[in-house]
Design a protein that fits this description.
Blueprint (H helix, E strand, L loop, with lengths): L15 H17 L12 H6 L2 H10 L5 H12 L10 E4 L6 H31 L6 H30 L2 E4 H34 L4 H4 L2 H27 L6 E4 L6 H7 L5 H14 L1 H19 L4 H30 L7 H25 L2 H16 L5 H10 L3
Parallel strand pairs: 1-3
Antiparallel strand pairs: 1-2
Helix pairs in contact: 3-4, 5-6, 5-14, 5-15, 6-7, 6-14, 7-9, 7-12, 7-13, 9-11, 12-13, 13-14, 15-16
């Protein structure tokens, strides 16, 4: 790249012919002074029509190049930026760039994880709905969480599975924004829902005599409705801001689903408003609910310590430990990815962190709540007995039911 002192003629306010005339005049003036003049002209139009503009400019800036040549390239990239309302840019999700021999293996692994996630959360949802003993605020919130996790993982994992089979997944802007909207809606709602579950445990352990009054069925329903509505509203505003941006014709996103930050980086519009809104949302829906949960559990732990009997302390702690483990996994990855500075993270680390809260957490939630909750285990046994009894009373059915209810 030429030094900036030799990049004298380009300006966004001048046509190329004007710049060329200015360059010729300068060359003649230097020749009259007896200087040696060399004119180098590069036509990069074809380059900008065939490559990923943001990636090219980022690479040029990272290499230390600057000056009017870089300014011209940035101006050229923005000048040919497509209007997404008419030209419809597409987004190529690169997914995981791995050896072809491993793609089928990883496809089968993640397909199994996805199947277990859906089946496990459906099982919890059916168990909570079918057993009157679980019709309490804690299990009402747990049922909502399981319903959310089913759609949370369904929104992202099938795209990743398609990437393993076909190499890359191409989505239109509309499809990408829809996926982003659903993802943001469910992610924000889960943050609020986990906060409600912590508040429920706080009221149950710290104020047991007033629990039924403050956590009535009507209040729980209103709280859950507000949680879903708030998540949808915030995600919709984010999606609208991103959809109004313009994008080049060719966009390669090094991710396995459409996330807000990769989309913003690929835009060639002014992203200040959309980026600031995403930052405000990240600091609002992640650290604040997490701090509220931490404060709630501080009071809960103090209350549990004051319980005189060891059996009472163990029972109280068992109702909270599962939720606390899920909170640590979910909020830990969200804060590391969206709130903490991530400039030093590689793209592979970002994708690995995304896997934790989009794939691992939804899969582990049913396992955590089932293994550490005797009420859920007992209700599942009853559910299996009811299902088996409806299939007949023959010897084979009785043996099958006995095997199912003795896990």
């Amino acid at each position: 790249m030429l030094k900036d002192i030799f990049q004298n003629f380009w300006s966004p306010t001048l046509y190329r012919t004007t710049c060329k005339l200015a360059e010729d005049d300068e060359a003649k003036r230097r020749l009259d002074q007896g200087a040696t003049v060399a004119i180098v002209l590069m036509d990069l139009t074809a380059v900008f029509d065939t490559v990923d503009h943001p990636s090219l400019l980022e690479q040029i800036s990272r290499d230390g190049d600057s000056g009017k040549a870089l300014d011209w390239m940035m101006y050229r990239a923005k000048s040919i930026c497509l209007d997404n309302k008419t030209d419809g840019p597409g987004f190529i999700l690169l997914g995981f760039q791995i050896l072809p021999e491993l793609k089928l293996f990883l496809f089968l692994i993640f397909l199994l994880i996805y199947s277990l996630t859906v089946v496990g959360n459906i099982l919890i949802l059916v168990t909570v709905s079918a057993n009157n003993s679980l019709h309490s605020p804690m299990y009402f919130f747990l049922g909502n969480l399981s319903f959310l996790e089913i759609w949370y993982t369904t929104n992202t994992v099938p795209t990743m599975l398609g990437g393993f089979l076909s190499g890359n997944i191409t989505l239109s802007l509309a499809c990408c924004v829809i996926q982003l909207n659903i993802f943001g809606w469910l992610a924000i709602t889960e943050c609020f829902l986990l906060t409600l579950m912590a508040y429920d445990r706080y009221m149950a352990i710290c104020y047991p005599l007033h629990y039924s009054k403050f956590m009535s069925q009507r209040l729980c329903l209103v709280l859950v409705q507000c949680t879903w509505a708030a998540g949808f509203l915030i995600a919709m505003i984010t999606s609208i801001l991103i959809y109004q941006l313009n994008f080049p014709a060719h966009n390669r996103i090094d991710h396995f689903f459409c996330d807000n930050m990769p989309l913003l980086k690929s835009s060639c519009s002014d992203i200040y408003i959309a980026e600031m809104f995403c930052v405000v949302v990240s600091f609002t829906v992640t650290p604040i609910p997490f701090l509220l949960i931490v404060v709630s559990y501080v009071y809960i732990i103090v209350a549990i310590i004051r319980i005189p009997s060891a059996t009472g302390r163990q029972k109280a702690f068992s109702t909270c430990s599962s939720h606390l483990l899920v909170v640590a996994m979910y909020f830990g990855t969200l804060i590391a990815l969206y709130v903490a500075p991530s400039t030093g993270y590689s793209l592979n680390i970002n994708k690995a962190l995304s896997l934790l809260y989009t794939v691992a957490t939804p899969m582990l939630n049913p396992v955590i709540y089932t293994l550490r909750n005797k009420d859920i285990q007992g209700a599942m046994k009853i559910t299996f007995q009811i299902i088996c009894s409806r299939h007949g009373d023959g010897p084979s059915q009785l043996v099958f039911c006995h095997a199912k209810t003795t896990f």
